[in-house]
Write a structure and sequence with these properties.
homodimer, about 325 residues, UDP-N-acetylmuramoyl-L-alanine:D-glutamate ligase, nine-stranded mixed sheet, four-stranded mixed sheet, 10 helices, about 35% helix, about 25% strand, globular
């Protein structure tokens, strides 16, 4: 029985980067987030695929103990994203988006998901995100929502409505500026927190994340990797690790928030080291522990001795 | 008697940002770095100014206890930089550079600087940086060097020669890629550490710094500010705070390195909050202590409870 339910896309991706390319590769926001979260808690994925979707996708989910009863098999074709990255791996250029069966996506949570505690509404139409919230008999104790520039531009009202009903929003820098109309991220965060979510996670690609809530600001770097091969899914792997760990802790405080951000960052660092979901499938315990240790060493420093500070007042 | 000697430019700047403009404002790499370092140790500044340089510049240095005997007064005009920033405050567009008296800069350390322990060679011609090292009877225990794209492009041999003689190099992301010929910063760092310096500080503007040495990697964010008014001097204020604090500690370990990076980042965060050197002049003890506390809160998190990690191996 999943404690965490993730609703989003299950896709077949065509990706080209300076380091190679893949076609019809397993992907999609809910797929990446689900795999990443599965290392930390019981996960159910809700999405839709077409008749062309390979059984391999379901096997991967099953091997990670993920409940896929919420993935509808439709008569159409699977949602497909084709994108390209140049050496600046921070921004993808979308070559083609084939919505296909996503156009008829009407997510319904199966009965096995009745005991959900946390919900991740990955990046889809904010009207669908709202309908999912409407359909739940009890509000989960934590709702995380991801969105993108397209919805901010074309469905801002629907987006603002659903923002009032969630706890954590994850968006990237440019989207935070677009949504708030403010250039300074500190000002942007204040405006966005005023729209509803108690916590805002601003994703900055290879520079990590900035996290704002009413209490504090937390900055977590991206793990500096020798080789980044494919950034696709980094944000979703981050979100999955984040909410997966948070769900496992069973409480939402500033302390667990920060710890969850670090877990999310570590999971994202695995994701980008290889194409598609290759690197976040079948991760070993020792790999994860080692990466989390490196993360701690990456940012920690001893308390400052301040007797040399020379000014008064 | 300065323990830290800083050699670089003393300038009059003309700066325009979306938030205002100043002309003939106090600036220059050694001036910014000197002020920033003066909160932590005894500083001497070595540079050259013209007959148009205002007495106010010397008064500011004196108020901060900085030894300015090493600043030569020449018959020409003071070095002047004119630049503009758009809303993306990360990159300056240089409108005009008037080298003026800088063309005849031949730095000579006055006798009062004989007891120097640490040396900051701010961004000037690498041949001059090497001549300064040649002129010292005893090598300081720590030498930090800053440079820029212009020297990497036009005096790479001279630069590589001087890199073999220093301890810490500070450059920005683009320059690290240019100097190493590598895109990945981890690979770039390995290549650059192979050129001589034991420590490499990669400056990433509003994203903070990445620090590489043979032992470890350290990431420190930039402090998220509501209002950044003028980024001029941020890198020099960072370097000044960094080497100033490090000098005050009297030892160079991975621990003091990390602490010094945090102090540098805090000093830089003051610098950018107002035009020219306004914000790093006359800082109060409480302001600095408060900012350092905020910095610690910005990056710290509690050890991760890992009993929920579900994978084996």
């Amino acid at each position: 029985m999943p404690k965490l339910v993730i609703i989003g896309t299950v896709a077949l991706d065509n990706i080209r980067t300076p380091f190679g390319e893949v076609s019809n590769a397993l992907g999609g926001s809910a797929f990446y987030a689900g795999l990443s979260a599965s290392y930390w808690t019981d996960v159910g994925v809700v999405g839709i695929v077409g008749k062309d979707y390979p059984e391999e996708g379901f096997s991967v989910l099953a091997r990670h103990g993920i409940d896929s009863k919420g993935i509808e098999r439709s008569e159409g074709l699977t949602f497909s994203w084709s994108g390209e990255y140049t050496y600046d791996l921070n921004t993808a250029q979308t070559l083609r988006t084939d919505l296909n069966c996503l156009l008829s996506f009407n997510p319904v949570l199966p009965e096995s998901h009745d005991s959900l505690e946390t919900l991740f509404l990955a990046n889809i139409d904010p009207e669908i995100q709202a309908k999912v919230l409407d359909s739940l008999p009890v509000r989960p104790s934590l709702v995380v929502l991801d969105t993108m520039n397209f919805w901010i531009e074309h469905k801002k009202d629907a987006l603002q409505k659903v923002l009032r009903r969630i706890d954590v929003l994850t968006i990237n820098e440019g989207e935070a500026r677009m949504l708030s109309g403010q250039f300074s991220l500190v000002s942007a965060a204040r405006t966005i927190l005023g729209m509803g979510p108690a916590t805002l996670i601003i994703k900055r690609g290879e520079y990590g994340v900035l996290v704002f809530n009413r209490e504090s600001v937390f900055a977590s770097p991206a793990y500096p990797l020798e080789d980044v091969r494919d950034p696709t899914g980094a944000g979703d792997s981050f979100a999955g690790g984040f909410i997966g760990f948070l769900t496992s802790q069973g409480k939402f405080s500033d302390d667990t928030l920060r710890q969850s951000i670090v877990v999310g960052s570590a999971m994202a660092s695995f994701c980008v080291s290889d194409f598609s979901t290759r690197a976040i499938e079948g991760l070993k315990r020792t790999d994860i522990l080692k990466r989390l240790e490196s993360f701690s060493s990456l940012t920690s420093y001893q308390a400052l001795p301040l007797m040399s500070l020379r000014t008064e007042g």
